[in-house]
Amino acid sequence: MIFMERFKQKMLNSNRDYLVFFAYFATVFFHELSHFIVSLLTNGKPSKINLIPSKTILVTEDGKEYVFWTLGSCESTNYKFYNAALISLAPLLLIFVAYFIFIKYFEIFPTYTFQNYICFYSLFYCLISNSIPSYEDLKLAFSKYSFIFYTFVFFIIYFNQNLIKGVLNEYL
Fold it and tell me: N or C, which end of the chain is more exposed by having fewer CB within 10 Å?
């Protein structure tokens, strides 16, 4: 995994924009797809998904250049108090998908070949490496829209502690 991160960082620092697309496409795809699916399920009305990286160059007054990359985006048009946090933190669900793949992959593909191992670790890497919400995701997750949602969840958990303890005892 360290090799893959170093490779991707070298691609970002190169002047070959098309290589950035190939280096990041698989991982960005899962991240943005998670936003898109949760937006659909929570009535967020996704309007646009972009998987093509774009580069922005900022030049300061003293002449220094800073390069910023937008690797992908998923826009929704209906952010409400009940869905803003869920849509923005959707990439965290990739951890559960990765766990499912970790448990079930070799039951589904029982042959232990080199290609199977490469596919397994590549898929696992793509899911885990992009399960972290971006800065923009975190800004939306803790915006004024989401405060009402978190308050609501807190009160449900607080007043239903016995119910939660029963569920946890049953499954753990």
Answer: C
> How high is the pLDDT of residue 9?
63
Cα dihedral 1, 16, 72, 137, rounded to 10, equals 60
| pLDDT tier, 11 (very low <50, low <70, confident <90, very high otherwise) | low
How do the domains of the chain map onto residue ranges? 2-91+132-171
pLDDT digits (tens, 9 = 90+) for 127-149: 888 888 888 888 888 887 677 77
Residue identified by tokens 């119910």 is 163
Distance (Å, rounded) from C-alpha 77 to C-alpha 55?
24
In DSSP notation, the chain reads -HHHHHHHHHHHHSS-HHHHHHHHHHHHHHHHHHHHHHHHHTT--EEEEE-S-EEEEEE-TTS-EEEEEE--EEEES---TTTHHHHHTGGGHHHHHHHHHHHHHHHHS----HHHHHHHHHHHHHHHHT-S--HHHHHHHTSHHHHHHHHHHHHHHHHTHHHHHHHHHHH-
